[in-house]
Design a protein that fits this description.
Blueprint: E1 2-7, H1 11-21, E2 25-30, H2 33-36, E3 45-49, E4 51-52, E5 55-56, H3 58-67, E6 72-76, H4 81-89, E7 94-97, H5 103-149
Parallel strand pairs: 1-2, 1-3, 3-6, 6-7
Antiparallel strand pairs: 4-5
């Protein structure tokens, strides 16, 4: 079962989302960022309302993004497309309008967000490992050149 943190200050919306996702996820609900803090570990996804009692707008996303290592899906009543695009640029996996939510759309959005996030993380790790490998290879080449210039004997098998 997936671990979902829903940061939503509307009890009605929180209950609606819990009902949609029942039997599919373990869901923790927090009405504020302060309430959410103890729950930032071991999550598969965060569903985040941008307008909370203790934070508003994209600052809310910035705050949560600092603490979680999972996809964040924005849930908002705001239909502002420029804010939606900015949220995606800042790292949110998706941006859903609360009034347009339905069980299938929300569930698919969660699954797809997790898959995209995992794929991005794998690609990032591969890129980091490739850079590290290239750096090690470059250093080994320099060491071998130094050894060659000092006429130090080494066999071909030691080049690896």
């Amino acid at each position: 079962m997936l671990n979902v943190l829903l940061i939503e200050d509307s009890p009605m919306m929180a209950e609606f989302i819990k009902t949609i996702l029942k039997d599919k996820v373990n869901i923790i609900v927090a009405a504020t960022l302060l309430e959410a803090h103890p729950h930032y570990l071991n999550l598969d996804v965060v569903l985040l309302d941008l307008e909370l009692p203790d934070s508003a707008g994209l600052k809310t996303l910035e705050h949560v993004y600092k603490f979680v290592e999972c996809p964040i899906i924005i849930l908002t009543g705001n239909v502002d497309e420029s804010q939606a695009l900015e949220a995606i640029k800042m790292g949110a996996q998706d941006y859903l309008i609360k009034g347009e939510l339905n069980p299938i759309k929300l569930w698919h959005t969660i699954l797809y967000a997790i898959e995209r996030y995992n794929r991005t993380n794998i690609e990032t790790r591969i890129n980091v490992l490739t850079v590290q490998f290239d750096m090690i290879t470059e250093k080994l080449d320099k060491i071998l050149k130094i050894l060659d210039s000092k006429d130090v004997k080494h066999d071909e098998s030691s080049k690896l």
